[in-house]
Design a protein that fits this description.
alpha/beta; Rossmann fold; about 30% strand
Length: about 120
């Protein structure tokens, strides 16, 4: 199972900085996939590398818009079988709905919701 970290709240830069800090502490991973909701602030904290893949999806509550953008992006990312998946959400408001989504089929057998950072 792929460990998944959820990061939510704060602004885009704060979330990206929190993700970068967590990744620095887990530098031994061979492959990390990061899904970032929202538009960058102009300051790139995370820079893609051969072992760090970054996917950016348009802002908007992923549970309220039917999870289509999340589902498509997540399915594409999971095909690469990363050592860690990080999902950064703009708001903590609907975090329980996202958690529920990630613990349903088919994701329940693919992901292990390991940790959470709320800003």
């Amino acid at each position: 199972m792929i460990p998944a970290l959820l990061v939510s709240g704060g602004d885009y830069l704060a979330r990206e900085t929190a993700v970068a800090g967590r990744l620095a502490a887990t530098a031994t991973l061979s492959s990390v996939e990061v899904i970032l909701e929202g538009l960058p602030s102009g300051q790139a904290v995370l820079v893609p590398t051969p072992s760090l893949h970054i996917q950016r999806i348009a802002p908007g509550c992923m549970c309220c818009i039917g999870n289509l953008a999340m589902r498509v992006t997540l399915n594409r990312v999971l095909r690469r079988k990363p050592g860690l998946l990080v999902i950064s959400l703009a708001s903590s408001e609907h975090l329980d709905n996202i958690r529920r989504f990630l613990t349903q089929e088919p994701y329940d057998s693919l992901l292990q919701l390991a940790d959470e950072i709320r800003l």
